[in-house]
Amino acid sequence: MTQEIRAEIRLPTQELRDDLPFYTRTLGFRLDMIFPADNPSVAVLSGHGVRLRIEKGASEAPGTLRILTDDPGFAGGAKALTAPNGTRVEVDELNPPVVTPATQHAFVVRRLADQAPWVIGRAGMEYRDLIPTRLGGAMIASHIRVPDGPVPDMVHYHKVGFQLIFCVAGWVDVLYEDQGGIRRIHAGDCFIQPPGIRHKVLQSEGVQVVEIGVPAEHVTEIDHEMTLPTAQHRPEREWEGQKFVHDIGSDGVFKPFRIPGFEARDTGILAATKGVASVMVARPVGEAPWTVHDGDILFTFVMQGGMTLEGEGKDPFRLSPGDAFVIPPGMATRYSDATPDLELLEVTLPGNPATRVLYASSTPPRAPSASRRLLGGFSSGARRSECARRAHPACGNPPAASHSDQMVKERAMTLLEAATAVRERAYAPYSRFKVGAALRSTTGAVHVGCNVENVAYPEGTCAEAGAIAAMIAAGDTRIAEVCVIADSPDPVPPCGGCRQKIAEFAGQEVRVTLCTTDGKAKVMTVADLLPGVFTAAHMERT
């Protein structure tokens, strides 16, 4: 025989006859019981998922009753009411939209050696806060340790804008809605958990993860109805415009990073979130310059190895595994003295922020004086266009004076600025489509070129070809980086012939940044532009 159990919330009243119309008519509760008949002093009502017992002379305080609804006309549209018995009634949205507070930007460094406390959280997991300020509520970053063995978890989901689980040690098994059977991540792997996807942690061994949540305060709800795994396997399903991602680190391919001197592998999260965030794993391949990013949130966690984080106006920080930092937009920083085994987890929101190279040496950057902001060899009346002042991904910077009048002589001048300036000199009376190109050679010198048209159309030359010719004339033979700008709706890549010309003097990993005059940019490599390139190796038998 099944025993029935009911729970009631008791509320006091002085006069029951005054309360009943309010609770039944205004709030929509149903009267289930009332007694005694001759002089009622107790009424039991139910509705909206609760059972109320309103009792005359009860000793409790009136309390607060919260009602969540998606009906804007509930209770006449009122958001706050007071019942005759004194109970405060608050009416709120049933499913309010996720709102991320404006980011309160700050330079934050959190080191494991600082003994940040571990606290016990949900399902027995240990949490360590990596950003104590949480950037004003914009995000939370947690270093989490999960006890070995089965995890006492339930099917649940999060009401978030973005959430990442990146494994830095051990392994953990998780079930996800519509994603098939058990998913296991090891160190270097990650999940993106789209808003609302149901999931359940099963078991783990030696696992440590970094979890990123946006906003910092978000709701976790338990789903008592769903059983995982679900019957469907729908890898292309979207939750609020985002797809589930299970990235396997060992399958990743490293390509040039937004910071010169580093390479990185993409986890696919930029595409899966449609630009909401990007998650990269970066490692050093050379010396990094001073850079500035123009994104919103840039969070980095040191997974292995070590480096020194230098910041404009800040003391340098020597970082080790387990350390984390946040760099605000507009702040000049440099990653120096990196160990060969350094690996960084970088999370940016929005994804793929524009990054500018400021200075290549170890000297901290300084803003150039007004008298030194002009291009060498150009008229003193020349001014940078508006797009040259906007953020573009990593258009590099010459560390030395030029060797010809086609080079940029100002150290603080970027490739984008050089390409923008020379574009104004393009000779394009027939197409009226002006293009500027600037390239930095491996010696650090910058060479520029613009398109030159001819009434006999095939005799015209492209901007990229002009820059390469200027480089050869100056005695340089290897390209380190290229930037091209044109007045077009989207970044325009070099033509086929210019791709082959660039590949003649550049390695497959060399970055080519394509820009528009209204601020759009796209970063590619020579390998991206010209797969299957024809090289001298194809002529070895001739």
Report what the structure shows.
- With 542 residues, the chain is mainly beta.
- The chain has 4 domains: 9-93, 2,3-Dihydroxybiphenyl 1,2-Dioxygenase, domain 1; 117-248, Jelly Rolls (Sandwich); 251-359, Jelly Rolls; 392-538, Cytidine Deaminase, domain 2 (3-Layer(aba) Sandwich), CATH 3.40.140.10.
- Helix content is 9%, strand content 37%.
- It has 6 helices and 37 strands.
- The strands form 9 sheets. Strands 9, 10, 11, 12, 14, 15, 16, 17 and 21 form a 9-stranded antiparallel β-sheet that branches.
- The longest helix is centred in the first third of the chain and has 11 residues, at 16-26.
- It is elongated, with a radius of gyration of 31 Å.
- The protein starts with 8 loop residues before the first strand and ends in a 13-residue tail after the last helix.
- Residues 365-413 have low confidence and may be disordered.
Percent of residues in β-strands: 35-45%
- Tally of DSSP β-strands: 37
Q: What is the CATH C level class of the largest domain, in words?
A: Alpha Beta
CATH topology (level 3) name of the largest domain: Cytidine Deaminase, domain 2
Shape label: elongated
Write the layout of secondary structure elements.
Blueprint (H helix, E strand, L loop, with lengths): L8 E5 L2 H11 L3 E6 L6 E6 L2 E7 L7 E6 L10 E3 L5 E6 L14 E3 L7 E3 L5 E4 L10 E6 L3 E2 L5 E4 L2 E15 L6 E4 L3 E3 L6 E16 L4 E4 L15 E2 L2 E2 L1 E3 L6 E3 L5 E5 L2 H4 L5 E7 L5 E4 L3 E8 L2 E5 L5 E3 L4 E3 L6 E4 L6 E7 L5 E5 L55 H9 L11 E7 L4 E5 L12 H11 L5 E8 L9 H10 E11 L4 E5 H4 L13
Parallel strand pairs: 1-4, 5-7, 35-36
Antiparallel strand pairs: 2-3, 3-4, 6-7, 8-29, 9-10, 10-11, 11-17, 12-17, 13-18, 14-15, 14-16, 14-17, 16-21, 19-20, 22-23, 23-24, 24-31, 25-32, 26-29, 26-31, 27-28, 27-30, 33-34, 33-35, 36-37
